[in-house]
Amino acid sequence: MKNVYITRVSKFLPNDPVDNDTMEKRLGFINGKTSKARRIVLRNNKIETRYYAIDDNGDVTHNNAQLTKEAISGLCDESFKAEDIQMLSCGTSSADQILPSHAAMVHGFLKNGNLEINSPTGACCSGMNALKYGYMAVKCGEVENAVCTGSERISSWMTGTIFEEEIEHLESLEEQPIIAFNKDFLRWMLSDGAGAFLLQDKPEGDLSLKIEWMEGYSFAHEMEACMYAGGDKQDDGFLKPWSEFPTQMWSKQSLFAIKQDVKILGENILVKGVESLKNAMEKHNITASEIDHYLPHISSYYFKDGLYNEMKAQGVEIPWEKWFMNLRQVGNVGSASIYLMVEGLIASGKLKKGEKILLSVPESSRFSFAYAYLTVC
C-alpha cells in the first residue's frame, strides 16, 4: 500500500460575501414578508457572511458543476495541468440535476481527457466520501493522483420563488400563509461554494498533509431522517419520496425544498457524533493529546459548547485552543465546509511539520459521521 498525501488545496467562493442584513433581499422574500425565523436562526448560528451563486438581481452566476470546476482549476498550474488528473471524485448534496451524475458534469466542464469519475451523494459527508474514494484509489496504487471535491449550490433551492405556489395553496385553504419552520430554518444556514484537494502518492512542495486514516459511521439503522429534500416525512417517521406524490403536489408542498427536523437534530447530533468520534479514536489508538488541530464541521455555533461538553462527558475532550473553524466567515457550505476549513488552516500559517490534524464531519440527514487523521509533512 502506498502513502497518500494532500499536496494542493483550493477553494472557490462565488461573488462577493453576503452579510446578514442583505441575505434575505438576495434570496427573495416569501409572500412579500420578512421571515420571523431569520433573526432567531442567525443569532444562534453566528454566521456573519456567506456566498451565493446568484447576483443582486437574483440571476444565477454559477451552477454546482461550474463552482466545482473553478475550485479544481485552482489546483492547476504549469507543473500540474487538468490533463494530468487521473481520477475525479466529487461529492455534493445539491447536484444540478438527478442525471447525469455531478462528477460527470464537472468532467464535462473540465474537458481534460478520459479518466475515472466518482459521484458520492448524501449531505455533508459526501465531500468526505469523495475524499475517501480518492484516498483508497491512490493508496492501493490504481492511480498516482486523484482530485477530490466537496461543493454546494444550495441558494437556488432557498429562493422565495420556490415557495410561491405553496403559499398560494395555503391561502386557498384559508390557512396561515407561513412556511413551516423546518423549511425556513435552513434558508438562513446554508451557503454556496466549492473546495478541492489534489491527492498524490508522494509529498510535494513545502507542505503536504499525509492521510493516516479515514473512518465513517452511520446510525440510519436506528434513526429516522432528520434533514431531507425531495420527499415529505409522515407522522410515523417514514420518508415518502417525491415520486409517490401526485405531480400537482410537488410545488404545493414544496417537496424539493430542503427541510430539517430540528427536534431530532438537537436530541441526537452531538451524542451520536461524539460516540462515533470516540469509536474512531479508540480504533486507531489515539488520544486528544495526539491532536494538534481539530477541525469540526458544525452547522451553527449554537452547537459548539454542546459538542465540547459532550466530548468531555464521554472522555474525549479536545481543548478549545486546538479547534479551528471558519463558519463565521464562509457560512455552512455542507460537503465543501471541511475542504474550506483545511484551506483556511493552511492559509493561516499555523501548521508545523509533524503536527496532527483531525477532521470531523457530521451529517444530520440520517446521522452519518466521517473522520480523517492527517500528519503535516
From TrEMBL:
Superkingdom classification of source: Bacteria
Keywords: Acyltransferase, Transferase
GO BP, sorted A to Z: secondary metabolite biosynthetic process
Domain Beta-ketoacyl-[acyl-carrier-protein] synthase III C-terminal: 281-360
Pfam families for this protein: ACP_syn_III_C, ketoacyl-synt
PANTHER family reported for this sequence: 3-OXOACYL-[ACYL-CARRIER-PROTEIN] SYNTHASE 3, BETA-KETOACYL-[ACYL-CARRIER-PROTEIN] SYNTHASE III
Protein name: 3-oxoacyl-[acyl-carrier-protein] synthase-3
